[in-house]
């Protein structure tokens, strides 16, 4: 085995940000000299006592080159390295959802017009021991050209975003880094410092994990999984029987009668669902890379803990910026789409937290897709609208976010709300708010004037809500068709 190793993301055909410093990193013999040559310039460093090394580099726009790394008598070369726009896509299952499963996959492949696009799938490492020993069966990954032969394994959202980026700037090289894991809480994606900083997070995540994994032997875990699998099998059997006996009933109604699939599975010390796990096993795999922007699409699995989502989301943004040593890297937070089958108001609460975090931290922007989604399908197979909207914002040729209500003003008896990211608002049908007056909620129609929302007869209003449902009806859009983000707002 070679003593000179590069971290996994550094392969041929990789894309690095143009005009932004990035690192090449890896391992060598402890205290060994390492040199990196690029465009006939050589950069030197020395591996530390553990053999870890990294070198800081910069590539200008529209460049392609080879990078040669040497240490002692060993040499490695990275071929066809390109500079361009690099996007980190991360989160859970709806951003993990593969392009091959999109309803439009075959028609897109048959008429593919995508060029200058490359992607890298971060290996889904679920656990490593204290010695950072990687499983022998862990699939490795390389940078790939996005074409008819490879796109089946790319993120569906990533494909549509890259397609829009390419349409807007055909000459720009695009690098998509896919880093996601389905079924996960945001608590798995943050470091220990975030969860330990708040007693409510300790109570909801750290203590249950310790209780579930303390004082047990393997036989205990085996029995728990046997019981869990028996519940899943029984659920599947009962659901199939109910559907056969009631063929006219929808899947959602059938699940209401029979119950939903048991989730999550039992917790173990090595479960990928454990607190902080994926921060170490996946995000830290790319800690030395550099990104132009980060897209975070997650929240579905925190429907049981929506009240504390804001603490974890804030912690995620700040801790990742610290890990990447890039304290201003822009984040795009994807506001959840519509989905009915969750506890009442769980998704509206999470959407509100997603909105508020973009208003509290610099260079964090909202991409609302609340006008998309399927009422009883948590994994819609149509993601063109969501991905295209993300791509438009990533392009820097449009608004920096979808429309957001950011200011309130009371004039006479009118409540006037100002909206960002719009030159004019478009109504699709009548637009209604829920309005709280005298501690009572009522439905009230609103109107638009340019990019303002106006509510008449507003005396004594305490709070307003717009599209505040798990599966909302969005009626207000900007001139580009992007929805005004669902929100809740205190008045006064």
From TrEMBL:
The keyword Hydrolase applies. It holds the Pfam family SASA. Residues 85-217, 273-394 form the Sialate O-acetylesterase domain. SUPFAM superfamilies: SGNH hydrolase. GO terms for biological process: carbohydrate metabolic process. GO terms for molecular function: sialate O-acetylesterase activity. Keywords: Hydrolase. It comes from the Bacteria. PANTHER family: SIALATE O-ACETYLESTERASE. This is Sialate O-acetylesterase domain-containing protein. It comes from Companilactobacillus suantsaicola.
């Amino acid at each position: 085995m070679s003593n000179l190793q590069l971290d996994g993301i550094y392969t041929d055909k990789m894309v690095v940000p143009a005009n932004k410093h990035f690192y090449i990193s890896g391992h060598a013999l402890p205290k060994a000299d390492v040199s990196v040559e690029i465009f006939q310039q050589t950069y030197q460093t020395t591996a530390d006592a553990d053999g870890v090394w990294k070198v800081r580099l910069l590539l200008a726009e529209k460049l392609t080159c080879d990078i040669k790394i040497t240490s002692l008598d060993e040499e490695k070369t990275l071929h066809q390295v390109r500079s361009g726009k690099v996007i980190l896509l991360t989160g859970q299952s709806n951003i993990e959802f593969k392009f091959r499963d999109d309803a439009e996959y075959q028609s897109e492949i048959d008429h593919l017009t995508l060029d200058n696009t490359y992607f890298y799938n971060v290996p889904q490492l679920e656990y490593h021991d204290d010695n950072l020993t990687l499983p022998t069966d862990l699939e490795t990954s390389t940078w790939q050209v996005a074409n008819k032969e490879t796109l089946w394994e790319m993120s569906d959202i990533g494909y549509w975003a890259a397609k829009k980026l390419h349409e807007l700037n055909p000459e720009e090289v695009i690098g998509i880094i896919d880093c996601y894991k389905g079924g996960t809480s945001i608590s798995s994606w943050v470091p220990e410092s975030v969860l330990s900083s708040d007693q409510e997070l300790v109570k909801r995540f750290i203590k249950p994990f310790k209780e579930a994994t303390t004082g047990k032997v393997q036989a205990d875990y085996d029995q728990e999984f046997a019981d869990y699998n028996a519940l899943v099998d029984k659920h599947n059997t009962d659901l199939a029987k109910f559907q056969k006996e009631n063929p006219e009933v929808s899947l959602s109604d059938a699940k209401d009668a029979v119950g939903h699939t048991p989730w999550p599975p039992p917790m173990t010390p090595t479960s990928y669902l454990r607190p902080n796990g994926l921060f170490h096993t996946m995000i830290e795999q790319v800690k030395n890379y550099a990104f132009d922007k980060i897209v975070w699409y997650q929240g579905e699995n925190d429907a049981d803990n929506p009240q504390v989502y804001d603490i974890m989301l804030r912690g995620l943004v700040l801790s990742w910026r610290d890990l990447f040593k890039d304290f201003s890297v822009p984040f795009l937070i994807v506001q959840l789409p519509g989905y009915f089958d969750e506890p009442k108001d769980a998704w509206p609460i999470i959407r509100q937290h997603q909105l508020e975090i973009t208003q509290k931290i610099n260079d964090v922007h909202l991409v609302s897709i609340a006008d998309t989604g399927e009422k009883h399908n948590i994994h819609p197979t149509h993601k063109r609208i969501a991905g295209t909207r993300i791509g438009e914002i990533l392009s820097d040729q449009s608004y920096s976010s979808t429309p957001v209500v950011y200011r309130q003003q009371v004039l006479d008896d009118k409540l006037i709300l100002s909206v960002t990211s719009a030159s004019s608002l478009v109504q699709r049908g009548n637009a209604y708010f829920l309005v709280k007056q005298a501690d009572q909620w009522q439905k009230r129609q609103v109107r638009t004037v340019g990019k303002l929302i106006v509510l008449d007869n507003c005396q004594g209003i305490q709070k307003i809500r717009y599209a505040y449902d798990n599966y909302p009806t969005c009626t207000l859009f900007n001139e580009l068709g992007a929805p005004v983000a669902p929100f809740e707002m205190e008045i006064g």
